[in-house]
Design goal:
By secondary structure, the chain is α/β, with parallel strands linked by helices. About 50% of the residues lie in helices and about 15% in strands. An 8-stranded mixed beta sheet has the order 7-5-6-4-1-2-3-8, with helices on both faces.
Length: about 325
Amino acid sequence: MTKLATVSPCYNEEEVLRHSVERLTALFNRMISEGLVTEDSMMVFVNDGSRDRTWNLICELSRENKFVRGINLAHNVGHQNAIMAGMMTARSWADAVVTLDADLQDDIECIPQMVRHLQEGNDIVYGVKVSRQADPLMKKLTAQAFYKLQDAMGVESIYNHADFRLMSRRALDMLATYPEHNLYLRGLIPMIGLPHTTVDDVISERFAGQSKYTLGKMLGLALNGITAFSVRPLYLIFNIGVVFLIVALCIAVYVFYSLVSGHAVQGWASLMLSIWLVGGFVLVSMGIIGTYIGKIFTEVKQRPLYHVQEIVE
């Protein structure tokens, strides 16, 4: 049997937390009765600087429920860092860790299947979304566009996989050797290279409250994923620069011909267009290069990803 830990980052999740614990408790009891997991398996909730009663509720539930453990971070560090904090803490408690959001929109009925795949020799099991009917239209469109953009930029990841996955202790120990500070786990974990497989994940509607993963946060994650795992944007700037150079040479030939033939017309439209076009390209290029330099700046300082303030068991 496998000693299992689920890890869920929590940011202002008091509306769904008790309901989620009830559902996971029923699942744990069923898996224990089926001989899949041990009786000392656990569900770990990571409080990521919540401003509501999330941490107080986690403490209450830990006293009421033998499966519940809590990790209280000193301040808000973001979704990816909170997941990392939970995994790195729980890897010494369990044989395998399943990460999933606290609202349980992922299909928790996949977890027994994940454990079976683990017992068959797979160190990583990815939950791949096969249906997004519960997601808003904008989220569906942006998610699909993001995965296609990742692929175009050369970022290796599991298509339609978010952060619902199982990892063995061996995989977690290997993940701990990566000194990444700009975390993008969806691109980082596939680099480990251990045996892996997938399960189908059908997304359900949220029980209560609203998703804390706003459009701005999703765009930030997308930018981080691309710039942390691909240098293609830099090559793209170079290629566009070459195109601009060719266009400039063509314009130079045309201007010279106009002067020689006496058909030169004084005007500012073409000049203004060129200035704005080239100026916009230069500013965008500087922004992309600045993003990479900023990531280098944060990486070389080697600051801790998180600080654990308190643990309840």
